[in-house]
Each structure stands twice: as structure tokens, then as C-alpha cells.
Amino acid sequence: MMQVARNLTDAVDGFLLGKRYLILDRDGKYTQEFRDFLTDAGTNVVRLPARSPNLNAFCERFVLSTKSECLDRMIFFTEQSLRRAIVSFVDHYHRERCHQVLGNRLID
């Protein structure tokens, strides 16, 4: 896992370059040394609360909705157009779209 941490924080093409937060569950493979390495590299490590299995499900559902309702229907040529579409979808998702868990009402 330390090699993974080094790869994630690589100065040339590390995935976490410019990222402020990394959300982790409480899996044993994310050791204290792993988390400290990422923190020293400038990424804040946020650990999910213990015994909260549904948190990941909510994130996965949001990502699935974003992909199926927005990203799969468009072709992007620039990063700017992708970002604009995602911002617009998130605004729609939170302000205009009905949510089944709320009895098909809008979020207040």
C-alpha cells in the first residue's frame, strides 16, 4: 500500500495531484502509515465512520445517476464543457429533480 501511496502522490502524474481530500473506509489495508504519507503529501484523509455501510451506497447511486442521466448522453470535446455539464446536472439533481426517498418531492 505504500507503493500505491507513492503512485497516488507522484509529482508528475499522481492521481491525487491538486486534490484536497480522499475519503476512505475503515479497511485494514489503509494503515496509519498510508494515511500519514497522504497527509504529508498535502491530501486530507477523511475516514468514514465505523459501521456506516450505507454511505458508500449513496455515493455510488449519485455517480450512477450522473453517468446515466447526463454523461452517457453527451460527447465532450473539452474539460470545460464536461465541467459545465456536471455543474448543471448537480444543480438539476438538487433543485429540480424529484426524489423517491422523499415521496417524489423536491429537496427543500
Describe the structure.
The structure is a single chain. The chain is built from four helices and two strands. The chain is mainly α and 108 residues long. It folds into two domains: 2-47; 54-102. A two-stranded parallel sheet has the order 1-2. α1 (2-8) runs parallel beside α2. The model has no long low-confidence stretch (mean pLDDT 85).
Identify the notable features of this structure and list them briefly.
4 helices, mainly alpha, 108 residues, 7% strand
Write the layout of secondary structure elements.
Blueprint: H1 2-8, E1 21-24, H2 32-40, E2 44-47, H3 54-69, H4 79-95
Parallel strand pairs: 1-2
Helix pairs in contact: 1-2
Outline of this structure?
The chain is mostly helical and 108 residues long.
Largest sheet: 2 strands, parallel
Mean pLDDT: 85
Q: What is the count of DSSP helices, taking H or I runs of 4+ residues? A: 4
Beta content comes to 5-15%
Assign a percent range to the helix content: 40-55%
From the spread of the alpha carbons, the general shape counts as flat
What is the count of β-strands?
2
Indicate the radius of gyration in whole angstroms.
Answer: 17 Å
How far apart the termini lie comes to: 42 Å
Number of domains: 2
- Which strand order do you get reading across the main beta sheet? 1-2
How does the helix and strand content classify structurally? mainly alpha
Order of helices and strands: HEHEHH
Low-confidence segments: none
